[in-house]
Structure formats: C-alpha cells, structure tokens
Known about the structure:
single chain, alpha/beta, six-stranded parallel beta sheet, glycosyltransferase, UDP-glycosyltransf_plant, UDP_glycos_trans_CS, Glycosyltransferase
Amino acid sequence: MTPKAELVFIPGPGAGHLISAVEIAKLILDRDERLCISVLIMKLPMDFGVQSYIESLSSTTRLQFVDITVDDKTTAGFLSNKETFFMDFIQGHKPKVKDFVHNTSFSRSGSRFDSQLAGFVLDMFCTSMIDVANEFSVPSYIFFTSSASFLALCFHFESLKKEHHIDTSKYKDSDEDLTILGFKNPYPAKFLPRLTTDQTVVVTRFFDLVTHFKGMKGIIVNTFTELEPFALQSLSVPQIYPFGPVVNFNEGGHGRNSQSETESIIKWLDDQPESSVVFLCFGSMGSFDTEQVKEIAIALERSDHRFLWSLRRPPPKGKMELPSNYENFQQVLPEGFIERTNGVGKVIGWAPQVAILSHPAVGGFVSHCGWNSILESLCFGIPIAAWPQYAEQQMNAFLLVKELGLGVEIRMDYFNDFEGKYGPPDIVGAKEIESGIRQLMANGDKNEIRKKAKEMKEKSSAAMKEGGSSYASLGLLIEDVINNVSSSPNTIDCSIFK
C-alpha cells in the first residue's frame, strides 16, 4: 500500500472557521488519495451554530472528526475572564492535541503503519499550537479564513507594533489616510478594524499570533489570484497558497430553518422577476435594535425595490448568545409595514443564505461583509451593499467598494460593538440606506458593479477548475505536504479510520 501523508487540522471553534476548514479538507482529499486528515474539534460552551453542523459530519476512511473539547470545569475557568476567554480556551486545548497525536501512535512496536504525520493545518487563531507541531518535528501551515488583503493588513500592523514600536491607537477616530502594503488606494484610518487600534490584552495576543505566522511553512488563504492580485503580490513570506473560493454550498447540516420554512422562502423567490430582489442579511451575529430596524424598514419601503430581509432579535445585553428569531415581526417593524409591502417584500428569520444568493431572482445583497458571505455572493455574481458590523468587516467593505469595485457603500465606518465597550452604535438613517440600495439595484444588467460581479463569478469558477490558478495552488500545497513525509520519521496508525 502506498504510504499516506496525514494532516492534523485544528480549526477555530466558530462556525465560519470550522465549516471553511472542513471544506478545505474535503478539497485536499478529493485531489489526492495519498492524503488523510484528522479534524480536531473544539466546542465552545455557547452554541454559535456549530453543534448541528458537527452532528451532520461523518468520518470516512481518510477523513475523521475528533472531539477534543476540554471539560466544563476547565472551560468555566476560562470564562472568568471574558476579555481573554476565546484565546485562553484555544490555548487550553494544547494538552488534548498532544494526547491525540501521542495516542494515534508513532512507534508502537509490532504495529503496521500506512500513514505518516506530514504537518498541522492551524486556524489563524490557533497558531500557538505551533509549539505542539514543533514537539513532533513536523511543519505547520495556517488556514487564514479571511482575505489576502486582511493578511497584508495584519502583517503591516504587526510590523508597526513590534518592529517600529508605534502606538497604533493614535489612528483611532483619525481622519488620516494611510499607505498600507497590499492596498492600491490610501486607506482611511476610520475604516481600520478595532483590533488594529485598541490597546488591550486581546489585541496584543492577536498580534502575537500574527508573529507566529512568519514561522509557518505556508499560509492557505481562502481567496484566488484573480480576486486579489495586488494584495497577494505584496505578501512575500511565508509561502502563500490561495486556493479559493472554498464555499460550503450544502447548508443542510447547519441551517436553522425547517424544510418547510426554506421551501416557503424559495417559493416566494420563484414568483419574483429575475435579478429584482435585494437580499438583506447580516451574518450569524447580525442584529439591530428597534430604532435601527425602523430606519431599514423605511428605506426599503421608499426604495421601491423587492426585498427579502433576514431580521433577527438581538441577544440579551451582556450575554454571549446568537440572535434569535422573532415570534412576531410586528413588534419591531413600523405599523402597517408588512401590509404595505405585501407581495413585494418578505421578512424572514434565519436565512438559508447560499440557497437565496444562488436564486436567479436575487440581484443585490446588503451584507455585513463577512469574508465567507462575500465569497458566496461573488460565486453567484451578486454585487454587495456594504454595511460592516465587527471584526475585519470594515476592511472587507473597503476592499469590495474601493479596491475591487464590486460593491457600494451604505456605511463603511459603522461599528456594532456586541460587548458594549464603546457604547451603542450610531443609527444609520433611512436616507443613507435607501441610497445604497438604489445604487446597488440601479440600471439592471447595465449596472457596472453588477457586470463586474458577474465577471468575477466566471473567474471564481475558472480558478477552481483544472488549469485554474487555485487548482494549481492546491497542487503546490499537496506536493509540499507529500514531500514532508519523506523527511519525517514519524508515522500514524491509520487503521483507526477503518
């Protein structure tokens, strides 16, 4: 039997990170039969859409899923400091990772092995696990779940902070335009993600993780050359492997709608003209208070466009929970809104996003600009109206609107602080929202942004096919992984997969 190369994947515990990592793993295995993968799963105490997805997964001969979650008592200890909980939680799983690799077996006398440990693939927030990989004398790769542009921004600010000792908090609330390697246009400081300008323990530890990036053998980025050529050319170390867009087109395992609810949504879309509907959805954590909801409703009614709106209730203040569905939308919407928009608009709770974006009736997407959502939208040629909320989404919005010309702006310097550190977010008025929607949906197929989005759809598809840029990049990664085996004495018993 041909020896197999074993990769150990350690994805972040959030749904967006875990699902993307599993899709990457499947892509690798489909490409080369000499590889097998173990995905080590860490479960957060609060279910951010992960549990139903995990339950849908099944191990195969070459792909296994291993729960390494620490016990409740240990997790409770991490929760004592909410600010550092997430990173402490990941760090606390190091012993479990070591146990897994030891117990999978390296040198049991008399055992027959047909696989050899070739490396770790670590989520961008799990780079502290490089210590474990080094202990077993194997290389580490990063799976960077955001854009190449954000990776460039991370390296830029890591250099400012650690090499040039610059206090980047001076950029907070600044009107300065910055020159950042990886961006063609001057970057307004007011669009910087908070993690680049805050001076907190979490930010310090995040940039410690970025420093680890430089010690990795390679960085896998969920993007493709045709989408971000400028940013990718700016990244010199380490080896970059862009082989996206990797998208989970099957939402069945982690959706929160019943089949009948999803069918009702698709049936409504079936009755709408092609490219006529603007879809509003703000991610798994996206929600607004009542005042902001009313401004969105007014904007939609005035815009005279058909709409499908995913509207969700914010979690209780101070609780680490996902938004939930309303029992009755009338309690937050303007009086008579449902009746007045009947036939041209539909308000829903949780949205089966891929199924909606792939529907021919959808012509535009008002989005929080999470990277997975952006890739999904571009895979179906749908332009975006950018209304970022948190994390790196303000930078993603700038990338879409100013760098790539694939979107329009609603409010790019909007920040929705879920933890309450910065007070309530500004209210974006109906006039501003309406303007963004009108720009997004104007002129039908003659809309230049829509034309560019449809062109990017074709480029994204071509990149993944044989002969495409992402196909070639994946081949280079696999070749490197296989080469790791010939230089490593360690082996793993793959009989546990059978």
